[in-house]
Design a protein that fits this description.
By secondary structure, the protein is an alpha/beta fold. The strands form two sheets. It has an eight-stranded mixed sheet, covered by helices on one side. α4 runs parallel beside α5, α5 runs antiparallel to α10 and α8 crosses α10. The N and C termini lie far apart (48 Å).
Length: 333
């Protein structure tokens, strides 16, 4: 596979699938071989839009297509377990959107399937693959700001979203936490690992999903993280990491930053900016390249988005949902 294009299948045809396909088209070593939807018409329209050779009106046909190296699962997260599971059981490698699944149990089942069938599996946490976020993490790990004391991150959309919207639909895993909160939670995990303690408060909708959630994460080291997500108010999507000898601020869009500023005691602030060669800030290319790199290297998971980390984030999200009283169909009361 080292000298040839990686052949992608895209499962689902919504907005994020279209964004990913548009970025794949720009990669010379990637080929979109097939697309699938539960609607043949939707799959055919998507295929025509992006010049894709095969369009399937069911997920199973895509999963069984042996001329595909990896499938990108872009359904709502309520369907990730079924869709990604179909692909893994059929012997396909999988990149699965976030939140990875509805809960940690489903996430564990997918990891077990990937290991059973010796397939590559990765959560599409594009933030972890972003060059600037990787630089920020390296600075923190190298001790640029000393020992991490606090992390802050927020992600909110203005809305309003009607009750029938997927973000408010319990059947689709609706609510701010799984759709948006996964970013600030994952940002805290990236720098500090899985927390030792959690507390949270939320405002719930009439449908029983969280309209906004605020959480405090704590670690035995003494570090704290304050995270917030909302589908009723557009936040600044800022983040900051404060250490014993300095601070790093991301002024906006922390999950796909254009720049961040390093403040160190006794020194002038240093700004780190996105390299134009890395493409636009909102590109999904970095995660696609990481998947293709890993496949060519024969790896079964990515060191940038390790499966243990994904499972840890899902455990945190499970506990937060328990604390705020959000449950989905099939979960124990």
């Amino acid at each position: 596979m080292a000298e040839q294009s990686v052949r992608w299948g895209i499962l689902a045809t919504g907005g994020i699938a279209a964004a990913f396909a548009a970025d794949l088209v720009d990669l010379p070593d990637a080929e979109i071989a097939a697309v699938a939807s539960r609607s043949a018409g939707s799959a055919e329209a998507f295929a025509e839009r992006f010049g894709i050779g095969r369009a399937y009106g069911d997920w199973e046909s895509l999963a069984r297509d042996e001329d595909i190296d990896v499938v990108y699962v872009a359904t709502p997260h309520s369907a990730h377990r079924v869709a990604a599971g179909l692909c893994l059981e059929a012997g396909r490698n999988v990149l699965c959107e976030k939140a990875f699944t509805i809960d940690a149990r489903e996430a564990g089942e997918l990891v077990t399937l990937a290991k059973k069938h010796d397939r590559f599996l990765m959560e599409a946490m594009w933030m972890y693959c972003n060059p600037l976020v990787r630089r920020l993490k390296a600075l923190v790990l190298d001790g640029a700001i000393g020992e991490v004391r606090t992390v802050q991150a927020d992600f909110g959309l203005e809305g309003p979203f009607p009750p029938a919207h997927r973000l408010r639909d319990p059947a689709l895993g609706g609510g701010a936490l799984l759709d948006l909160g996964v970013y600030p939670v994952s940002f805290a995990h990236l720098l500090l690992g899985e927390p030792d303690g959690l507390s949270a408060r939320a405002v719930l909708s009439d449908e029983g999903v969280d309209l906004q959630t605020a959480a405090l994460l704590s670690w035995e080291s003494g570090a704290l993280a304050a995270v917030h997500c909302s589908i009723v108010g557009g936040t600044g999507t800022t983040a900051s990491v404060t250490g014993s000898r300095g601070r790093i601020d991301i002024p906006d869009g922390f999950f796909n930053p254009e720049r961040f500023v390093l403040h160190r005691d006794g020194r002038d602030p240093e700004e780190f900016a996105l390299d134009p060669a890395d493409g636009p800030r909102n590109t999904l290319r970095h995660e696609a390249r990481e998947v293709m790199r890993a496949l060519r290297a024969g790896e079964k998971e990515s060191p940038l988005v390790p499966l243990d980390g994904t499972l840890a984030v899902m455990r945190t999200l499970d506990t937060l949902r328990e604390l705020i009283g959000v449950r989905y169909a099939g979960e124990a009361p």
